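Before going further, it is useful to explain how the protein records used in this thesis are read. An example of such a record is reproduced below.

***
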Amino acid sequence: MDGDEGLRDIFSSVLTSAGYQCRTAGGGIEALAILESGEEFDLLTSELYMPGGDGMVLLERTKNRLPDMPFVMVTGTYDDAVIAAAYREGAYDYILKPFDVSLLVIAVRRALQCRRLKIENHAYQVQLAKNAKADLGRP
């Protein structure tokens, strides 16, 4: 999600070419409306500064509603305090512009892999608990 339509188009094109399905929004308010629509997403990218709310607000609201969704922040803001705040709020990655588009693909791939591993780990933990419960009932 980004306030710059050209950059949104580049993101979408690059990620689609890499095999991902994309949905774009023109700003924070539109992004939140899409997220609250019930449509499922695996990852969110956002510009730090955009129309209709900044990326930090979007990050905070996303993490409150969907804590396991990876969030990749993309911006030209080279402020260490802002970068640290994004990580503290739960951003998976923070990509500084200008950047090589391959960095975006790598960040998305890694974030999705991390999400997949967390989901698999959770399923494994649930299965272990079920097995332990079943074993307790055996003579």
About this structure: The mean pLDDT is 89. Residues 101-136 form the longest helix (36 residues).
